[in-house]
Structures are given as C-alpha cells and as structure tokens.
Amino acid sequence: MKNTCIIFLVLFLTMSLALFAGGKQEEPMEKPAVQAEEPAPAAKPYEGKVIRLAAQGDQFAPYMKVLSEQFEEKTGARVEVDILGYVELMQKITQDYATDTNQYVLATVDIVWTGEFAEKGWTVDLSSLIKRDEAEINTDDILPVMWAMGTWKDKVIAFPMSGYANNLIYNKAYFEDPEEQKAFKAEYGYELKPPTTMDELADAAEFFTRPDENLYGLVANGARGPAVAQDWMEYMRGFGGQIVDESGNVTVNSPECLASLEFFVDIFDKWAPPGAIGYWWDDRETSYRTGQSVMQSSWSIARAGYDDPSISLVAGKTGLAVTPTVPGVNALYGIGGWGIGINADSSAEEQEIAWEYIKWITSPEAQKEWLLNDGQPIRRSTVTDPELNGKMPWLKEMLKAYENGDGDYRPRNPQASEIQNILGLRINQAITHELTAKEALDKAAEEIGALF
Which of 98, 261, 324, 401 could form a disulfide with 201 if both were Cys (CB 3.0 to 4.6 A apart)? Predict the structure, then answer.
C-alpha cells in the first residue's frame, strides 16, 4: 500500500511538470491605457441667467437676435429681444422706468430721448464703466458724433449702438440717362448731377415731376406728429436753422428756419405725390422704392434695402449723397440713431450682464457683421473697412456726414418730446395751408418758449 502511494505521488508530480512546461501559459492581463481626460468646457459666467431687451423695430432689429444668440453661446446668459414699434417702445420702457417694474434690463434709446432719460435718472450712467474698460472698448475708434446718442452733460445714459447719417437718396437711372441730362441742361443751363445745394435740389425736383407719368421729383413725410416734424428738421439743418441755440434761446422762427419751412411747403405743393401730406416713414420709403419718386431725404439705415429686389423695384439704381445745403451758412449734416441703455432699477448682476452684452454687440468684430446685416456703424474702423467699402461704396459719403455731423440739430434736451409734439402740429398746419409758414413758426416759438 505504501509503495502504491509513492508511485501515485511520482506520477502526479511528473504530469504536473509536463503540463506547466508544455502547456499554454496565460499572458498576464495588460493594464488598460490611461485615457487622457478631455478638458472640461470653459465655464460660462452667466449660465442660466435671462434678461430682456426692448428694441426699436428698425432694420437692425432681427440681427440683434442673432447677436444675442452668439452672446448666450459665449457667456451662458440669454438676452430675450422684444422688437417694438417706435411709439410702443417709448410707451413701454418709460412706463417700466417710471413704475420701477424692471421688465426690461436693456433698451434701445433714441438720440432725442437723451436729455429726458438723463434728467429723470431712468438708465444707468455708464461713464465709470466706459472709463474702466476704455482700452477694451477702444473709445478712440468710435466716431465723436456718435456720443450724442446717450451723452447729456456729464452723464452717458446710453452707449452708441447704431449711427444714422441723414442723406439725399436719388434714383441714378434718371440722373445718368443721357437724354435726361441733355434735356436738363437745355432747361436749366448746367449739368444734371446729384444736388449739393437747395437751389439745385429744387431744380431737379421740378424737372423730374411729371404727374402724367406718375413720377415725382421729391417726396417727404407730411403726417401730423413726429413724421412731419422730423422730416422738416432735416431740411431746416440744411438751411442753417436751429430750434434752440447753444445759449438756450428759442430760434425756431429765425429767417433760416422760415426759409426752410417755405421750401418744405413747396415739396408738397409742387413736387411730392398726391397724398404725401399723410405720409409716414413707410409711405415715403414705398414711394421711392416703387420708382414713383426720384429723390428723398432719408436715413442711411434704409440704404441697403434699396438694393433688395424683394422689397425694392429700384434695386441697383440708388445713389446716396450728403444732404444739400445753403452755401455760406453753418449747415452741418444731420446725425441720428440709437444708443442702448441699462435700466437703473436692475440688479447689480443684471447690470453686469447687460454691460458685457453692450460691449459685445458694439465690438469691432460684431460691428462689421452688424453693418453687413442692416445695422449702422459707430466705429471709424467699420466705415473705412476695405472689404465693406467694396460691398457698400456709399460708405465714403456716409463718412462725410459723420465727420461733419450735428447730433443736436433735433433737440435732445428733456423737453424734446414736447417740442416735437408742437412742431408735429405747426409744421403740418403750414403744409396744409391752415397757417402761413411764418404764422406756424411764430406759434411754435411761443409754445416752445413756454416749456423753459
């Protein structure tokens, strides 16, 4: 039995050695390679935050939504853009400010609201923020006249956003036609060209007014209210007039203002389409875009739309020139447009987000895309950009207006809305011949003087 056990043990050891010597050995398991961790996405400083913006429904408004989407991708904060008509915008934001409801943290601010908003303290004074971030903003690149969109005395109640130049818009097809040129020279004794003086403007308007062809030389707004008041002021500045001078004196019935109103009355009596006495901005633009009117005084914001065949029958035919003036008078070019302001009732965090948004949409890189998408510039680098000038050759004429512009030709003082209401009535009464031009301006002078 003992021998049997020994034999069995020897056989077992022999078989085990054979197995481990000749059998397949299992490879040791390799340790998995260490996976490089992907860097965590950069934290968005305002993730989940939401603020609202009330925006004027001008041509730039749809692209504000695009910029707001880009801002959310960049910062995490969503800026909800409400696009409103002019009257509705003014009503909504002033009610919001006056009742401290803080529905809108941001709002576009018309240049003529500057004094009123500043005196009432409705929007944040941005002066310290601009000074703090001056290098980032590159304030030297912002055209000086643009600061009229929000600067009042020592406050900056809105940051410049979209600067409009007041220009003469004309149909090049008529001015460049050889037969028209020949006929004009035979009648007026000089070459047909875009007018540079008010006398030349009158001649061209008269020449192109042909009611039997449904063609009119010059169209303007006549509707009672802000439409007629603001359109007349464009001509008033070309005659060297002012409503209130630098010393605060009411000068709306000056000889220069009277001459401009008499010219303005002639537009409706002699050169504008029938019914223009009731025109608002859209009506005036439609008359030009359909080819009914050859010329108009308009804002540069509308320029790109004239070449859009979906809304314009004069695509490719529009020229832009600086506004005609009276030689020898102090006739700077009209500048208008929109700033963007922060509600003074908003929280510190909301104001921080709003300020970052303002810097983003007015940055050089955003401004270039802004101009390509129906916005208007505030920066010299944008207006002089070679690529943009190749696509928009009229920018050089706009630059003339910006460099020689007057942001105060329409009053920006706290009484601006009341002044506009007075002129909206009296100018309309002049063009409808309820009053003579002199009577209208004398009454306006008396009523405006009572505001101060």
Answer: 324
